[in-house]
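Subgroup meeting minutes
Present: P.N., E.W., G.H.
Scribe: E.W.

1. P.N. recapped why we're keeping a running log of single-chain structure predictions: easier to compare across weeks, and new members can see raw inputs and outputs side by side.
2. G.H. added today's entry (62 aa).
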Amino acid sequence: MGDRIRTVRLDRNLTQERLAELAGLDRQSVNRIEMGVASPRLDSLLRIADALDTPLAALVRY
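Output recorded in log:
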């Protein structure tokens, strides 16, 4: 999932810091999610999907 979030973020030309701002998270949280170190809560995933203008299912699908 972290790889998909990173791919979409880069396709949208967003930095981790900007995605964090848009999603109401801190940059370290976005980094940990993208690196697969942390499993995000559902509310964080929804905010990330919204900030990326991407359906949640596209981020969590295997």
